[in-house]
Specification:
Family: Belongs to the leucine-binding protein family.
GO biological process, one term: amino acid transport
Number of strands: 13
Distance between the termini: 40 Å
CATH class of the largest domain: Alpha Beta
Number of domains: 2
Helix content: 25-40%
Organism: Bradyrhizobium cytisi
Keywords: Amino-acid transport, Signal, Transport
InterPro entries: BCAA_transport, Leu-bd, Peripla_BP_I
Strand order of the largest sheet: 8-7-9-10-11-12-13
Order of helices and strands: EHEHEHEHEEHEHEHEHEHEHHHEE
Oligomer: single chain
Radius of gyration: 21 Å
CATH architecture of the largest domain: 3-Layer(aba) Sandwich
Amino acid sequence: MTKRSGITRRTIVGSGLGIAAGLVSRPSFAANTKVKVGAIMPSSGVLAFPGQACVRGIDLGVKFAREKFGLDIEIVHADTQSRPENGRIAAESLIRQGCTVLIGAWDSGATISALQACEAAKVPMVVHIASATQVTSQGFTQVFRYYPTSLTIVRQSLTELKSVLGTLKDPPSSAVVLHLNNTMGQSTAASIDQAWKEVDVPLKIAQYIAYDEKAKDLSVEVAKAKASGADALISVTRVNDAIMIARECIKQGWDPKMVFSPNSNGVSDKAYHDALGKYGDGPILSALWLNPKGAETDKIVKMFAADYPNDWFDANAGCAFEAVQIVADAVTRAASPESAAIHGALKKTDMKPILMYGDNTKFDETGQNIHCSMVMLQGLKGRPRVVAPKAIAEASLEYPLAPYSKR
């Protein structure tokens, strides 16, 4: 049976729980020991698009780990239903079911909530995506975050932006920041405010405009952005609101010269491009991404295409996939399915990313990956393309943003 999404009979969305089949392979440890891994994602609700992409990445990651590490892995999926408070509920449930290591939880609020349960039970958690600084600044001992902090992402992103601005003819002169008011959005806005000064970006920030992630209409916020007089838009979005912002720009006749996202996934999602068609091209995003020239990338992408022919292998799926490999590597080195042994092995992690672009994954004393490398993407011809760094670029940057009225 062909898989059409990451939510299958293995995931019961109502309860947030499901079980994937175990995998068996070569080493004697793996052949005799089952490792039970819990995966917490927002598989339903307003964050369902990225959440389901993460589930696909987890399931493919387990399939790949069977071959590479020879592990017998049982995955138990849990759904936060896009509610931050459900992170702890999901984590507690997974731990009661015998999961000795967790992966999750995409949303920063849900991740922090889940980590509270992990801390109490002494069960390690690999955070594949969640950028709020608080995830690794509150003293949690069980956290191992692959994803960068919002400040790291923003600082690297703005450094790249400054470099790009220096090459442009008639660059924008001012920018308005339109951002979510949730944990991730507020953390990113604060990071932008700090890093903008540190990097000395040659653009004036005209205004910060926050909005609720559950908003059904962003006409007022986009009108404020347009009225600010800024000719560049800095957006911090998820996919639903990214679509609404683009539609309001079209409706209100606002054509910024540049749309740049220093810490958000909205403009790189398949749902964004499916919803907007030709109007989805042009925004620039700085993000963790698949290494198009990685040694095993083609093989992994082909595996994904075979299992999910109607979906994209995006950063959500990619980071989730990478998290499974980090866990598999740690369990193999620990030679044990027990939480304490896995925790000890995770602290000593030093592995080259198997799929994602970047240097070796290593965790500092706070549990933060110290080697997080960003790429610059731009929506071109209906999907995101790598435009920097040059060594792995798939296309050249296009500027200015094509006016919506002329597409």
